[in-house]
Amino acid sequence: MTAQKYILGIESSCDDTSAAVLLGKKVLSNVTANQSVHEIYGGVVPELASRAHQQNIVPVVDTALKKAGISASQLDGIAYTRGPGLMGSLLVGGSFAKSMAQSLNIPIIGVHHMEAHILAHLIEDEGFPNPPFPFLCLTVSGGHTQIVRVDSPNHFELLGETLDDAAGEAFDKAAKVMGLPYPGGPVIDQLAKDGNLEAFTFGKPKIEGLNFSFSGLKTSFLYTVQKGVKDDAAFIEKNKHDLAASIQHTIVEVLMKKLEKAAKQTNIKHIAIAGGVSANSGLRSALLEQGHKKGWHTYIPPFSYCTDNGAMIGITGLLKLETGETGNMQQSSQARWQM
After folding, report:
1. Does residue 41 surpass a pLDDT of 60?
2. Do 293 and 312 have their domain in common?
């Protein structure tokens, strides 16, 4: 029997610096440093993000190793986010990972960020079953909205994606229009729990096939709020719960209709969600409800593996290492990188 490998996973694609240590497919530690500096700007500032990564990466990796109870010399490989993401942020994580791997003389594995979100479902975590192949995965984050057919850990087929804005961006922009703090997605989710999801209706995109579009929906939401404020200066405060519930319901409905269509076209019954927006309670509830109606086997990741995290990078690196796929020191980070 082959001995299980210790893998260090490093994630630095945007504004979270995260590191995790895995022994085989089990997570021993998963440490993340968030960057509050962006809150006052209402969005991520790339230059500030890369500086914060430089400050955070050493203590985050050190803490991950200590929590796992191992030393760096025991690592069998280091995986890092090679892309897509903010170039400055990617370079910090990539440079650190390469330097560390070179000093330890162990393999380095560059990982695709969105593939990692999907393969987080293969982490062995009690109470969360792993989907069998093939399965469909709806990956939803601030920068991506995709439906992916997953046939194996190294074979992905992109069935549909957003043509403009991502669903996570639509949540954040709606929150910004309402004057809510950044990041707005979780605030919308919280407010929606006490709102009427049918209080407001917004224009829905009519896109053929399995692709998405959210730019028109954002505009429709903006016009609704502007009109309301014109008639009543206190419109947002009076209706914030209903506005949040209605926009969340509309976004989730768009996502679920496309996912239902993909499941029907592929005849695949194992359906997963991944990415930061998979933490949204409305989306989670809708997937479970739809799964019950359609006879799907549904897979929802633990909250700790929804947002950007080192564990998802680590599991992807391990799976690549097991098939003999490794990177090299010459591989460059990629801000844009097709799956």
Report:
1. no
2. no
Q: Could you tell me which residues are beta bridge partners of residue 335?
A: none
| 338 occurs within a structural domain | no
Mean pLDDT of 247-270: 97
Residue with tokens 């407010």: 191
Report the alpha-carbon distance of residue 327 to residue 113 in Å, rounded.
Answer: 15
Question: Each residue of 180-210: b (16+ CB within 10 Å) or e?
Answer: bebbbbbbbbebbeebebeebebebbebeeb
- Give the pLDDT band (50/70/90) at residue 1: low
Q: Which domain holds residue 154?
A: 135-300
Measure the CA angle with vertex 159, ends 158 and 163; round to 5°: 90
Q: Is residue 18 part of a domain?
A: yes
18 or 323: which leads in pLDDT? 18
Q: Are 154 and 101 in a shared domain? A: no
Q: Which of 40-54, 98-112, 179-193, 322-336 has the lowest mean pLDDT?
A: 40-54
The whole model's pTM is what?
0.93
Can you give the pLDDT at residue 304? 92
The candidate with the shortest Cα–Cα distance to 147, out of 171, 114, 122, is 114
Both 119 and 243 in one domain: the answer is no
Which of 99, 20, 108, 115 is CA-nearest to residue 54?
Answer: 99
CA distance 147 to 20: 27
| Domain total of the chain | 2
